[in-house]
């Protein structure tokens, strides 16, 4: 079978001015199960209102590793359409917070209703570089970020927000132990999964800023070679001491 079967829609054609419904289909690599998420794409608020490839990669990884989010609080940072966070909700996260700027809130609310996840998902405004919203708990177990590296002036703001969300580790923790957690047994008290598509040389500036505060490692994933051909990487971040 063509190993790109589940990536057939990884970069769906997006209209610059048209609202449309899309069913994002996720596949299990270990059995024949699948999950369909209905997404209402709306380009009018900006690029965040449409589906982006790294979001589908991260969503599919979660679907194949549900224990990462099961019974844990989850923040989908820069959520856009809400795809990644909605998958976490379907996988029995304790509660999911979809976050983005104000123009994207209605898009996310629409998609929460389309997928009947209102009881498990909250939509909140969270601007990078600003204090954490009062509507979000102080501690978040899992932070998910997909396709957040795209606007160079926002790079330091995104790093600042990641630092706010993930405090410095205690002396007993070692940031050098970047153990993969796909077995659902995280080594750290908080999990950060960061998926991005390399597009510009300027992306290096973001990772230079990030390196001052975080270490990272490529997540072990059977689908890695497939999406890596699309210049997509899935990383686990750990706060540096």
Structure description:
- Its EC number is 2.1.1.-.
- It is found in: Cytoplasm.
- One of its GO terms (biological process) is methylation.
- By secondary structure, the chain is an alpha/beta fold.
- The protein has helices at 53-64, 83-90, 105-114, 155-165, 203-210, 224-228; strands spanning 20-27, 34-41, 73-77, 95-100, 121-125, 142-146, 191-197, 214-218, 232-239.
- The chain has one domain: Rossmann fold, CATH 3.40.50.
- The strands form two sheets. A seven-stranded mixed sheet has the order 5-4-3-6-7-9-8. It has a two-stranded antiparallel sheet with strand order 1-2.
- Helix 1 runs parallel beside helix 2.
Q: What's the short version?
A:
With 241 residues, the protein is α/β, with parallel strands linked by helices. The protein has helices at 53-64, 83-90, 105-114, 155-165, 203-210, 224-228; strands spanning 20-27, 34-41, 73-77, 95-100, 121-125, 142-146, 191-197, 214-218, 232-239. It has a seven-stranded mixed β-sheet with strand order 5-4-3-6-7-9-8.
